[in-house]
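Run log, item B.
One chain of 243 residues. Sequence copied directly from the ordering sheet:
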Amino acid sequence: MAEYKRRKKVEEDEGAPQWLLTYGDLTTLLLTFFIMMFTTATIDGREMQLILSAFQGSFGLLPGGKTLSAGELAEMGNVIESLPAHERGRAMAKAIKEAQSIFHPEIKTRNVVITVDERGIVISLASDAYFKQASAELDIERAREVLEKIAELITKTDYKNKHIRIEGHTDNRPTDPDGPWLSNWHLSSARALNVLGYLVDFGADPERMSVVGYGEYKPIFKNDTEEGRSKNRRVDIVILREN
């Protein structure tokens, strides 16, 4: 009897308990699920619905219970990393990094700001650094190098099919009634047009370019301080997203 108890104890000690295997499987599934949820910023709504269909009923909250079958659902579940949206996100991140490297000296002096938004990649030129006060005339000695860099960037292979929009902006202070500008719209449009002219001179394709003047109506900071007004006075070169 004593020998039987010892043999039974040894047999029970071999391997992991069954409950631990079940717990491990559950933990792995949860980890996979939350990793997938973390990547949903690059997946559109329809694709996300297709992926989540495989989880219906898994936690006892949704009716039914489906698995990924051969075809679109299986492919989507297996190759999330290669989804077009994900690839576009990676390409955008690479482009931003490249632009930040090219304009590092100007970014350091705050004469150029690189951002990304729903429009695309935005290269913002501080008007106070490159334009004379209340004037659309470029200080070309200061602006030449940065404009040449922009022209070179937007003629690269990665951008050759993308549309470029040049947007002029001002602060909310009225223009000088005795000056040449009827409104801030006129001033912002003239500045954007002058930037366009130099970019074309430096090799940019005019067929891919457009110009818009927003005047004071697209501020990025409040106009109640001089610092805020100075940041609103800018020209944005926008490498537009597709569609």
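Observations after the first pass:
- The longest helix spans residues 18-38.
- Residues 85-240 form a domain with the 60s Ribosomal Protein L30; Chain: A; fold (CATH 3.30.1330.60).
Flagged for discussion on Thursday.
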